[in-house]
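ENTRY TYPE: protein
WANTED: fold as tokens:
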Amino acid sequence: MNELRRKIEAEIGERGPIPFSRYMEMCLYDPEFGYYSRNAAQFGKAGDFYTSSDVHAVFGRLLARQFEEMWRVLGSPEPIVIRELGPGRGLFAQDVLDWSERKFPEFFRALRYELVERSTALRARIEQTLSRRIESGKATFAEGSENPKTASDRVPAIGFANEFFDAIPVEIASHRGSLRIDSQDRRFVETWASLSAEELEFMDRYLIHPEEGERVELTLQAQREMLSACEIERGFVVVIDYGYTCEEQLAGRHRGTLKAIRQHSVSANPYEAPGDQDITADVNFTALAAVAEKQGLQAQKLITQSQFLMGIGEANQFADAFEECRLPQERAKVALQLKHLVTPAGMGESFHVLVASKGVDSEKVSGLSGLGFGRR
């Protein structure tokens, strides 16, 4: 029998039916058997899903270019901290650091890279990937991975989260109430409880009122994670993920987006293989932007990943991608990888980018290359 299933059933036996968010938390982050805690290769071709950094190093290279521009907009402070939430295997951090060292030496000298990762298994993978950077002190793990309060909070910072918020546990609501998970005859069964005051307030604020037979996700925990990410005195927060705005949800889209992913296949059943499949939900960008504004940041209009990357890359015609290509077939391969990042058929239109800033002149922010596609 699945060890995690046994563990969840034991907790239900002790506490009674648990909120769906607790079930999702255990499935993904249980220290022993959770999906992100096991020593399995969840990322890339052999795993369950791709991230942009699995596609090509150009994703990290373009973001390095954007981060360097943000640093200059901030007045080139020393030091500058990049704090990445959920860094996976450390590939993105590796690409950003390598390209910055090669192309932006002044920025690289000022840069300190902080990694916020709670999974012991993934931290071990990151230590392998970034061994040279960690040994030199250029990259470090943020102290207290769940709530990274460090001395660097007073240092100008760029918070970055790519495909992080979609894996934050959610509550699920319907016209029957708030979803609870019970166990009967070795099976997980769904029951419903009264909605909490916090859940009702969230539904009213973002006009989420499920109709009969409909389910919607309430991203309460993501709010708290965003609050932590926005605890900066000066700098930027950049969130890239698949998700929606309140307006889109009111128009009938992105309602009931929870899904399980295993070996690149999508399932609607999160109870099938606890700990052996990813569970995700689309990100409520309106709610994240509201948290940023509440923390004193100015949130820019949501844009697509395609617009963002095209804006960064168009000035030098994506030279970052093609620099090492010596043969026509190498260029062709990289062009296909780049296409996957920026076209509607790939990740370009399904992923969105939220940029928020604090203590920066608004005209300088709107002039960032990633926010300027089509304006030049």
Observations:
- Residues 58-73 form the longest helix (16 residues).
- The two ends are 59 Å apart (CA to CA).
